[in-house]
Amino acid sequence: MSILVLGLGNILLMDEGVGVRAMEAFDAAWTVPDHVSVVDGGTCGMDMLDLIASHDHLIAVDAVKTGAPPATLVVLRGDEVPAYFKGKLSPHQLGLSDLLASLKLQDEAPQSVTVIGCVPMALGTGLMLSPEIEAQIPEMVTLIAEELERHGVTAVPRAAS
Amino acid sequence: MAQRVVVDPVTRIEGHLRVDCEVDGGKVTKAWASGQMWRGIELILQGKDPRDAWVFAQRICGVCTTVHAITSVRAVENALKLEVPLNAQYIRNMIQGAHNVHDHIVHFYHLSALDFVDIASALKADPAATAKLAQSISDWPKNSVQEFATAQKKLQAFINSGQLGIFGSGYWGHPAMKLTPEANLMAAAHYLQALDYQRRMNKVVAILGSKTPHIQNMAVGGVTNPINMNSQSTLTLEKLMYIKQLIDEVGDFITAVYLPDVAAIGAFYADWTQYGRGVVNYLSIPDMPLDTKGTVFALPAGFIENGDLAKGFTPVKGFNDPYFEKGVKESVKHSWYQGGKGPLHPYDGETIPQFTDWQDEGKYSWIKSPTFYDKRAQVGPLANVLGMYASGHQRTQYWVHAVLDTVSKHLGSKVGVDALHSTIGRHAARAVRCVVLYEELQNQWKLLMENIAKGDTTTFNKPVFPKGEIRGFGFHEAPRGMLSHWVVIENGKIKNYQAVVPTTWNAGPRDETGQISAYEAALLDNPVAVADQPLEIIRTLHSFDPCLACAVHLTDTETKSHYQVKVL
């Protein structure tokens, strides 16, 4: 049973990259067994099909737009992960849900999908997160560890390993 | 009375690409293309180490990561006049070739075919009749009754599940949909197969790029792939043989499925050769260098003026050609930046935001307007295919005529090269480019194997940065057209960086003298049957493979609509 922890987002657009930053923070602080992959998916679209297809469970860490105030954290599971999306004028608009739909058509969709998300505050150009969003990173790291625990995996703090 | 139709994809942040059309008497009479995201890579890169620029540059875009990585290292190498070892050229050529082939397949089947193919109609098709149709145009082994019946069931189950996902943007049942149920099922089944083949091609990028999804092997001065036929951690014979197998498998799909499908759909929609002509100055550049200096290329190209492939063609000769370097300028007269200095060369380019509201006659876009020797130009696969054609590239000429002959046979009348200057022509050209790139991939694989067999395992030349200021440019013929990066380096640090992305050329606003861009021109006279379902406008825009919504990747639980279309 393999698990993919996938950080998503554009690190050039401030809080858009919060998923990648949280995944990096998790990777820096925790070690996981070999059957768990922790990957920076960045802004990639169709390029990630093989990566996702080769795992049984997907934990995506991403910036999310839910209508809630900025810095709100959400955990979405199963049907809560939006199953259908808007029209596409460009392949760049291929979101996670589109990838999952493609995999479903190929009978290779993961058994479970969890999205750990944070509502962004600022999406301007820049490598830094907004301070309010930065402050949520430790909590997002905890949410990743808890989600792994739900799948029967115990992450070990790096200092202790 | 004229209506204003606004097509604005609901995007995850402030819109990306918006098109406004004035529609009168069932056709477009005026058009404005506007990019709604401003270009900030310049600011992020200022002061950074030029050797790291590609790492950031590849994050500009979610699809073209490798494209920006390659172009960025080329720009810095050009500034340093640094030669690149042959192995590194071949490996880069294979990465870019594989990426482009992957991208063209995805664009045709997964991002634009549904503008012409009605999935709902495919459910009504007879699988036996579909097999008969498909077998009449290709000997592809998967054109069987069984395959089509299975595909139909799969589509039905998918639609029944209510999760339309990737099919959600289709204008099903629109009066401009013309294919028979069988032709729709054939294309839909190939859509499913294409999902698999595009992935195989992407594996080639992943193996050579050392990691997926972002490649890791690029470096100013070469690539970081160590070559050692016996060590498992490097590029081995086993990996190279697997790459060859993947290339061959995808090649079969291109020749037996993609090309026949494009020719068949093109024949059904032959009227679309009359729409979407747009700007017929075409700019493309040579790519796949065959020497260390970037002076000899597998795929030649250049600038074509006024669609004249014979008299209007000027070749771009190489990575150092001043004809290219001096020709590019960008205007911000109609863009939301401080201007007043006239069009500027990218080395001197400025990116200082100055937002006004949308002004039809004033500023209305975040995109700058590039020109080549003061002329608007179209870029993309069509520009590249015509550039290779005009350069006398034989395989391009062969495949252009092969596709046009097939279309002519379907139609029972002669279709010439002129038909390519159109909405459907851009799809045909993309398919031609895809097969030409596949053949060149095989060639690059052979060149790499032969060079390694000679005992050459060099993949990297170390860059050394001088004191003082140097400048350079790099280009690459990317899936959506010619991409260029321009860098000014001072004492080993980046002083200015400008990325002129392909869609900038096509989707820019009016320029300094009011000339319209390729999008704006291509939409003129485009028919619009139903104002609030402007499928025809979408068709013409998609034929360019628009690329502006770069790199935004937000999960959205709030908005579930498709294109937001407003009729004012």
TrEMBL record, chain A:
MF term (GO), any: peptidase activity
Protein name: Hydrogenase maturation protease
Primary enzyme class: hydrolase
SUPFAM superfamilies: HybD-like
BP GO terms, sorted: proteolysis
Alphabetical keyword list: Aspartyl protease, Hydrolase, Metal-binding, Nickel, Protease
Entry's EC annotation: 3.4.23.-
InterPro entries: Pept_A31_hyd_express, Pept_HybD-like_dom_sf, Peptidase_A31
Family: Belongs to the peptidase A31 family.
Species lineage: Bacteria, Pseudomonadati, Pseudomonadota, Alphaproteobacteria, Rhodospirillales
Pfam name, any one: HycI
Organism of this sequence: Azospirillum rugosum
Taxonomy, superkingdom: Bacteria
Automatic annotation (TrEMBL), chain B:
Signal peptide limits: none
Localization annotation: Cell envelope
Superkingdom of this protein's organism: Bacteria
Keywords (A to Z) from UniProt: Metal-binding, Nickel, Oxidoreductase
Essential cofactor(s): Ni(2+)
PROSITE patterns: NI_HGENASE_L_1 (PS00507), NI_HGENASE_L_2 (PS00508)
Gene3D superfamilies per the UniProt record, alphabetical: Cytochrome-c3 Hydrogenase, chain B
GO molecular function, one term: hydrogenase (acceptor) activity
Enzyme type, top EC level: oxidoreductase
UniProt EC number: 1.12.99.6
InterPro entries noted in UniProt: Ni-dep_hyd_lsu, Ni-dep_hyd_lsu_Ni_BS, NiFe-Hase_large, NiFe/NiFeSe_hydrgnase_LSU
Main location: other
Pfam families: NiFeSe_Hases
Homology family: Belongs to the [NiFe]/[NiFeSe] hydrogenase large subunit family.
Protein name (database record): Hydrogenase large subunit
Organism: Azospirillum rugosum
